[in-house]
Amino acid sequence: MATTLPDTDIIEAKPAATKPTGTKPATTKYVYFFGGGKADGNGKMKDVLGGKGAGLAEMTNAGLPVPPGFTIQTEACREYMRLNAVSRDVDRQMEESLAKLESLQGQKLGKGENPLLVSVRSGAKFSMPGMMDTILNLGLNDQSVEALAKRSSNPRFAYDSYRRLIQMFGNVVLDIEKSVFDEIFNAKKRQKKTKFDTGLDAKALQEVIAEYKKAVKKHAKRDFPQEPQEQLVMARDAVFRSWQNDRAKTYRRINNIDDMLGTAVNVQAMVFGNLGDTSGTGVGFTRNPATGAKEFYGEFLLNAQGEDVVSGVRTPVPIVELEKIMPDVYNQLRDITTRLEKHYKDMQDFEFTIQDRKLYMLQTRNGKRTGLAAVRVAIEMVDEGLITKEEAIFRLDPNQVVDFYVARLDETDVRPADILTSKGLPASPGAVVGQIVFTADEAVEKAGHGAEKNLVILVRAETTPEDIHGMEVAVGILTSQGGMTSHAAVVTRGMGKSCVAGAGEIAVDERAEEMRARGQVFKAGDWITIDGSTGRVLRGKRNLLPPDPENLAKLEHFMSWAEPFRTLGVRANADIPRDAKKAREFGAEGIGLCRTEHMFFAQDRIPHMRAMILANNEKDRRAALKKLLPMQRDDFKGLFEAMEGLPVTIRLLDPPLHEFLPKREQLMVDIASLPSASPKQKKDLVKEYKEYGAKSAGDLKKILSALLARVEELHEFNPMLGLRGCRLGIAYPEITEMQARAIFEAVVAVDKQGIKTHAEVMIPLISTVKEMANQGAIVRRVAEEVFKEKGRHVHYLVGTMIELPRACLVAGEIAKEAEFFSFGTNDLTQTTFGFSRDDVNKVLTTYLSEGILKQDPFAAIDQEGVGELVRIGIERGRKTRPKLEVGICGEHGGEPSSVEFCHRVKMDYVSCSPFRVLTARLAAAQAAASEKLQIDAGRTK
Ligand code: PEP
Ligand code: MG
After folding, report:
1. I want to staple 53 with a disulfide (CB 3.0 to 4.6 A). Which of 71, 260, 516, 733 is the partner?
2. Within 13 Å and on the Cβ side, how many CA atoms surround 21?
3. Nearest to 216 by CA among 198, 190, 201, 234
4. pLDDT of amino acid 450
5. Closest CA to 895 of 868, 922, 864, 873
6. For atom 5 of ligand 1, which residue has the closest CA?
């Protein structure tokens, strides 16, 4: 078979293929035909035809062996979403295309001696593996199945195809639970004493069909439709509806795909991989999607259809085996896929079917890959002259940078007795430790949201798209079935999450909530370690080690292409010298936020901090602060030394004071139980309240009552909106004085050592210019005092965090007093939405599933609302002070879409946690490069 795919660019999209939504004249082209070496569409029309449809059109135009068919474009899906039905034009054009297909094939849909059967598949612009629905063998009914049996001389094949249709149609179109069919099928296997589907003969399958039809009647209250045209219309609409199913919505949310895009529907003549041992079906990649190595990579199954390979029902065979079984087909497949990769200039993920030794291509698309693979493929494709360096820099999703930093198993902690299996598939790299959960819902429940996440590993026989919400929160996935292209493998790779798949030596009983391995039984909550880089599963919590330096070197090389484009600075949020050093290793250009309260929580400081809070007069307070001063000074010295002249932004004390004291309720309980406490209990209480001056049981009553009185005094109903931030420094100016003194004494000491400093003192939670003026004056006065005492003057800045909506609105005023702004988007999000940042998860889960919010606004900046305030703040601030330095230090500073936003609104820098510095650097570089090169930063999705 000649493959004539040109090695040139894809032909231009045909103009005026669609009209914008709204004004839609009768001439809208809804249906695009492909077949006979020619297609109405082409590879560039992903918006219209979806990724699959565009790929099929492109391959057809290139003369590749693609079964003919037609694509109903995405506009029809959008219409269906709006009106719950498609227009008459869609039906009419579909009928015309079906007639064309029938005449090309010399067959009629579900009719005659040689009936035409079709597949009906979804296909959106961005690939959403397994999230939407597919129906195969459509056109079969009680008559055509007999014709197929006769024609193929293979009744078993015909009945197997029919039972699959009823099963898929029943589930997808008629909404009958999959388990209804599974139970019938499994019962039949048990009855016939066979483990595999292939063990059921034609007669047994006929019996299955009869029972399936009964089940349809019972559950759907109608017969399985015998009319092929009716089947087609119903299947098409069901695929459109599947765009809106829960798992598809969740997938779009996680991957930031627009809900309004809709899916196309591909109707294509069936080819059969289940015609016997000269037929088969498979999937593959032109390069290894886990490592990026240039090797032909994939899996197939003989005598199998569609989903069998990826569903994990049977464990597939490596594609190299095909070379032994059918060398011609193997070589043709290699040839075609190599050409496809050259043509698309990217690693391809393809699907094929072999019908009686004849190869058909069913799909090609840019393959999903790990971060490690993305970088290796990009670098090697530049070396091969396939893409330019400018194109290469968009080939890594900034979020995938973490793949380079995933942990490895510490081999010295791997004892043979702990290994439950070493034969799992290394589906997605990284070693993780976590507690077993057996269902996705349990994963969500146990893992929780936010920073305080519990580590859970989702253990399943195999995952399905319905598990997506559990996979999202788990740290790793372990499956006992399925291959390297199984659902679990593909999805976790995309998520950059550790996965061991197909660990056959582990038996998972999801119903009994049990995992058995090497004669041991594991229950939910037990700890295990999985290593997605090698495929091992171990019991207990094993030690993990940091990542491989060789891969890091590759990443550095890749970054050297991206970095020159970057204009946005990247700083790190770091409170201690160790984190500051780590941040510099990742390329941070300063510290954008040092939260000084973290320094007070240290063991040796908290007693002084508490003494300071408990003091009820200024003198006592100053005495306690004096003890804290040298400690703070040393902290700051360490930071300035580590940063060697790079900016260090130090935020003055922010949290409410009661955070440093015992809980009010606990104190009440302790006071109430004191009279009846045993000597041992009293001893424990003395120990607990030692830091507050308790030396013996006799002190307890007085100390606890005094403590409670102070805690009550400080008690606030809304501490997040209470005495915190600059309000604290205004109420107790001696705190600001102490911190300013510690900063400037450190500055002078480091300067004296010959190390440059660049201190930026930041006042938190400002909402009026007078607050800023008040605190700024203290800082500047203390600076002058210290400089005078020490005989040395060093440059510094005083600025503010902008984290309240009012501050954004009066930014012009505030900028009169502040030399820099740093947007505290955590608090700004909290106060703009009125969501408590610590409790939001209770609301968020519902809001996300209801589609009220598309993303967690505490993770990705809400550009419409919070972002608008940021824009206003920058504009007004710079109007007053054109050179005003502007950054961001909320959690958003390390999230790619937020970084891109910060670039657009012309901030000077973003600041994020040290481990996200590289992600931010790449995101910032891509934002600048896409602007400069006028490239739509359309990375592989
Ligand atoms: C913020 O509010 O965005 C911020 C960085 O401060 P914190 O998280 O410490 O409140
Ligand atoms: Mg804040």
Report:
1. 71
2. 15
3. 234
4. 53
5. 922
6. 890
Nearest to 340, CA basis, from 390, 394, 284: 284
Residue 589 beta carbon below 6 angstroms from any ligand 1 atom: no
Q: Name the residue of 654, 826, 832, 858 whose CB sits within 8 Å of the most ligand 1 atoms, as the mutation to test its pocket.
A: 826
Closest ligand 1 atom to 824 CA: 3
Which of 820, 892, 822, 823 is closest to 861 using CA atoms?
Answer: 892
What ligand has the least distance to the C-alpha of 890?
A: 1
Mutate to test the pocket of ligand 1, among 575, 652, 654 (most ligand atoms within 8 A of CB): 654
Find out whether 909 and 590 touch, Cβ atoms under 8 Å: yes
Q: Which of 487, 608, 658, 903 does the annotation list as catalytic?
A: 487
Q: Which of 716, 715, 719 is nearest to 830 (CA)?
A: 719
AA identity, residue 434 = G
Known active-site residue 487: yes
d(CA 390, CA 412): 42
Nearest atom in ligand 1 to the alpha carbon of residue 890 is 3
Residues 6+ apart with CB under 8 A from 624: 608, 609, 611, 612, 615
Ligand 1 lined by 598 (C-beta under 6 Å): no
Rounded CA-CA distance 623/568 in Å is: 44
- Residue 555: the pLDDT is 95
Ligand 1 atom closest to Cα of residue 889: 5
367, 375, 393, 487 from 401: Cα distances, Å: 18, 9, 12, 22
**865 exposure class (CB count in 10 Å sphere: 0-12, 13-18, 19+):** middle
On the 0-12 / 13-18 / 19+ scale of CB atoms within 10 A, 937 is: middle
715 has catalytic annotation: no
d(CA 910, CA 932): 20
Those residues whose C-beta lies under 8 Å from the C-beta of residue 744, and which sit 6 or more positions away, are 759, 782, 783, 786, 787, 794, 796
Question: What's the pLDDT at 9?
Answer: 36
Extract the tokens encoding 358: 């004849």
Q: For 425-465, what is the HEC assignment? A: EEEECCEEEEEEECCHHHHHHHHCCCCCCCCEEEEECCCCH
Q: How far is the CA of 808 from the centre of ligand 2 (A)?
A: 14
Distance 632 CA to ligand 2 centre (A): 21
Rounded CA-CA distance 182/80 in Å is: 31
How many other CB atoms are found less than 10 A from the CB of residue 678?
A: 8
Mean pLDDT by 10 residues, the chain (941 residues): 37 38 65 95 92 94 94 94 90 96 95 94 83 88 95 90 94 91 92 84 95 96 96 95 83 80 94 88 90 89 76 75 94 95 93 94 89 94 96 92 83 86 84 95 82 84 83 93 73 79 89 92 96 91 88 93 97 89 92 88 79 86 93 95 97 87 88 91 88 86 90 87 94 96 98 97 98 98 98 97 98 98 95 86 78 86 97 98 97 92 98 88 96 64 31
Read off the pTM.
0.78
State the CB neighbour count (10 A cutoff) for residue 605: 17
Ligand having the closest approach to the CA of 822: 1
Sort strands 507-509 and 514-517 into parallel, antiparallel or unpaired. Answer: antiparallel
